[in-house]
Write a structure and sequence with these properties.
Elements (H helix, E strand, L loop, with lengths): L4 E2 L11 H10 L5 H21 L6 E2 L7 H9 L11 H10 L9 E3 L6 E3 L2 E2 L10 H12 L5 E5 L1 H6 L2 E2 L9 H15 L6 E6 L9 H15 L5 E6 L6 H7 L6 E5 L10 H7 L2 E7 L9 H12 L7 E5 L18 H4 L5 H17 L6 H19 L6 H9 L9 H12 L5 E2 L9 H11 L5 H21 L17 H4 L3 E4 L6 E4 L2 E3 L3 E7 L6 H8 L7 E5 L1 H6 L9 H21 L4 E5 L14 H16 L7 E6 L8 H7 L3 E4 L7 H8 L5 E4 L12 H12 L8 E2 L10 H23 L1
Parallel strand pairs: 1-12, 2-6, 5-7, 6-8, 8-9, 9-10, 10-11, 11-12, 13-23, 18-19, 19-20, 20-21, 21-22
Antiparallel strand pairs: 3-4, 14-17, 15-16
Helix pairs in contact: 1-2, 8-9, 11-13, 17-18, 22-23, 23-24, 26-27
Length: 760
């Protein structure tokens, strides 16, 4: 029996972030778009060859994107918002993603429960959809010219509709009849590319709790798509959870195969008999595409043998659980990582070898392995045994302290706390602040890099950081912001910075993962029990406070976000790991307030993205996530004001959970969504103070004073001035000073205008 190995998708940013660098150079006007396309072509070729050399049978095309595949799909369908329709080519494409001087960008939100952001398509009944298949066709032919026959990856029509929004307020699924013929036309073009073409249609929307009307669209959709051409093998792929309801339908359509995630969707095993009876190919996702731990090959083979008790081996293909987009590129550049810990890890390139080796073992047995493969298998066994038994992972003192920790909430009711805080802090209605970070300049990055590499002394490094803090404080004083921040020059990333200072955390040199567009993050990883050896932020924050009479916010990342934006150990339940982080952070809050810091912001930007995709699992998550936020801030005294910040989220279904977190002030991202996200706070009678973002920091455009005045007035239609704070919608780390300074000056000026009008 031949081996069958499959990768759902591959990272596209490049092993040294080549795509990021070329895009940002192009946006800055330092290179032509031709240069970007040259870099993209080189990366695609390299990525295909990595997979080919690893022995992967099913290699993807059209998983590559210059920004985002949902955006690519919108362009493919000509789902172009009216405000961009006069633009063409790359100008159109990047304006939709990033905005321009005339128009705000399209909304961006999280891809299911991951830290990847996608561009949300805007649809309406007026849209005139038509096919633009150039990217898909060109990429397939590009690979074919290099002797690589790919499967074509495509966002499915039901997922595209389910993740889009109607600007004319209707149901996106009402547009199914308009969208589906475009997909049929696309398949007609794909059918001409080769004598036989494999088409992977991603339908991750199927893993959610879908209404019957959505499930009812599955069969007619895939009956029609499968009928387009007999030479297209359609594989419908899901990931991140089980999709049993959809699988029941798909087995009764003419699709060739069904891709299921058996790691994050263990209940998919309930559909095995249906798939076996249908005779379809099962693409079995058994190598984790979302985490960085080395696969335990013996355990995986056991899982596959159980699957094979129901589904014939002839009908099984070994796969990653989802796209490897969510993992770093390769361990090759991790030259400084501790050797023992590095041996426990596997990035995207290494996972290719795991999929290939598992496939060979499963289909041909250990006797078929060559010497290098036998060695790799033995090393895998040793690495997993080392990780199970290492004393670096288990810390009895941490476990005891967390088990014995009894302080589960802070003192005082909100009404008592906020009255005391306003008396002490003395801030005005419509108080102005920022979310925390200021631009990370090349000089800052250079100083951090040189200090880390031992090229400058600690004294020189700290002097440079303090000089930047001085500039940040001076600017905020100059433009008359009321609650200040130190700008976070010392922080490479809002999670990695803390990970580097917590025991039980590891970090990488090159573990970059795409967050959105050219934005990459380098998540730390949790390999052991978590504790805080010493204060992490107190020195920098108190230095900044010494430079101003105005309140200076202490800035922390919350336990749930630290968890969700890290690669988490898979040998302990996530809620236990989160509680360890919360206890450690409670010590930091106590140290900050004891040092005179009166406002502390605990960012929970990833709180919503951590939500389970299935309703049945939500209550448990909410219980421990709220518990751990409250443990984290439990050391705060009544007079210490606790802020939190949440990124793009739909709050309607979690507003009661946000209330239960009991923060004094919450800032939220609303700039790309108007006031829709804010209305729920009024509807439920939310009593705490709220800072809705008044302008979008993900776009380089500078909002005018008039725009912000209008936005503030819209906010005042929803919430009273006594409850509102005014701030940008997120941190300013990724922006340039020439954008930040006028934007914040305009924001403060807008607040003064509105205050004067309210006083008249």
């Amino acid at each position: 029996m031949s081996t069958k190995s499959y990768i759902v998708g591959f990272p596209r940013i490049g092993e040294q972030r080549e795509l990021k660098k070329s895009l940002e150079s192009f946006w800055a006007g330092n290179c032509s778009f031709d240069t970007v396309e040259e870099v993209a072509s080189e990366l695609k070729s390299r990525h295909w060859n990595y997979q080919k050399e690893a022995g992967i049978n099913f290699i993807s095309s059209n998983d590559f994107s210059l920004y985002d595949t949902m955006l690519d799909t919108a362009v493919m369908l000509n789902a172009i918002p009216k405000r961009f329709q006069a633009l063409k080519d790359e100008t159109l494409y990047f304006a939709m993603a990033r905005g321009n001087k005339e128009s705000v960008a399209m909304e961006m939100t999280k891809w299911f429960n991951t830290n990847y952001h996608y561009i949300v398509p805007e649809l309406s009944l007026e849209d005139e959809y038509r096919l633009n298949a150039a990217k898909i066709i060109n990429e397939y032919n590009e690979a074919k010219a290099q002797g690589i026959k790919t499967k074509i990856n495509l966002i499915g029509p039901l997922t595209f509709l389910g993740l889009s929004k109607r600007v004319d307020r209707g149901d996106t699924y009402e547009l199914h009849a308009k969208i589906l013929p475009i997909y049929e036309a696309l398949l007609q073009e794909i059918a001409t590319l080769d004598d036989r073409v494999t088409l992977q249609i991603d339908e991750p929307i199927f893993v959610k709790d879908n209404e019957p009307k959505v499930l009812s669209l599955i069969k007619p959709t895939y009956d029609r798509l499968a009928a387009v051409s007999e030479n297209i093998d359609i594989i419908v792929t899901t990931y991140f959870e089980h999709s049993n309801e959809a699988t029941k339908v798909l087995v009764n359509t003419p699709v060739w195969g069904i891709g299921l995630d058996f790691l994050h969707g263990a209940k998919n095993s309930e559909s095995l008999e249906l798939i076996a009876n249908s005779g379809k190919q099962l693409i079995a996702g058994v190598v984790d595409g979302r985490n960085i731990w080395k696969n335990d090959i013996q355990t995986t083979l056991g899982l596959l043998e159980n699957i094979a008790k129901v589904v014939s081996k002839e009908n099984i293909i070994i796969s990653s659980s989802c796209s490897l987009l969510h993992t770093p590129f390769t361990l090759k550049y991790e030259e400084k990582m501790d050797a023992e810990i590095k041996n426990w890890l596997s990035y995207a390139v290494e996972k290719l070898d795991e999929v290939s080796l598992i496939s060979k073992l499963f289909f041909k047995g250990e006797e078929s392995l060559d010497e290098s493969e036998k060695s790799a298998l033995e090393e895998n066994k040793k690495a997993n045994e080392s990780r199970r038994t290492s004393t670096r992972i288990h810390d009895q003192s941490v476990q005891k302290r967390v088990d014995d920790f009894k302080r589960l909430s802070r003192e005082g009711a909100y009404e008592e706390r906020i009255k005391l805080q306003k008396e002490i802090l003395g801030y005005k209605e419509l108080a102005t602040t920022t979310i925390g970070s200021f631009p990370q300049t090349p000089e800052l990055r250079k100083a951090r890099r040189e200090f880390k590499n031992g090229l400058i002394s600690k004294e020189e490094y700290e002097a440079q950081m303090k000089a930047y803090i001085d500039e940040c404080v001076a600017f905020q004083e100059e433009c008359d912001l009321e609650i200040l921040v130190h700008g976070e020059p010392e922080r490479n990333d809002m999670v990695e910075y803390f990970g580097e200072q917590l025991k039980g955390y590891g970090f990488s040199q090159n573990g970059w993962v795409q967050s959105y567009g050219s934005r990459c993050v380098k998540p730390p990883f949790i390999y052991g029990d978590i504790s805080r050896p010493e204060a992490m932020t107190v020195g920098w924050t108190t230095y900044a406070q010494s430079k101003t009479e105005k309140p200076m916010k202490g800035m922390l990342t919350g336990p749930v976000t630290i968890l969700n934006w890290s690669f988490v150990r898979d040998d302990k339940p996530r809620d236990e790991v989160s509680k360890q982080i919360a206890v450690a952070l409670s010590d930091e809050i106590d140290d900050l307030q004891n040092a005179g810091i009166r406002i502390i912001q605990v960012d929970e930007a990833a709180f919503k993205e951590g939500y389970p995709l299935r309703e049945e699992n939500i209550k448990s998550y909410e219980e421990w996530a709220v518990r751990d936020f409250k443990i984290c801030v439990s050391s705060a005294r009544k007079e210490t004001q606790i802020h939190t910040h949440m990124c793009y989220s739909e709050f309607n279904d979690i507003i009661k959970t946000i209330e239960a977190m009991d923060a004094d002030v919450i800032s939220i991202e609303t700039a790309r969504s108007g006031n829709e996200l804010l209305k729920i706070f009024k509807e439920v009678g939310y009593k705490q103070e709220v800072g809705p973002g008044v302008y979008d920091i993900h776009s380089p455009r500078v909002p005018s004073v008039e725009e912000i005045v209008t936005q503030i007035k819209l906010l005042l239609e929803v919430l009273p001035k006594e409850q509102l704070w005014i701030n940008p919608d997120c941190g300013l780390k990724t922006r340039k000073w020439e954008e930040v300074k006028p934007s914040l000056k305009n924001m403060v000026e807008a607040v003064k205008i509105v205050r004067n009008e309210l006083a008249d």
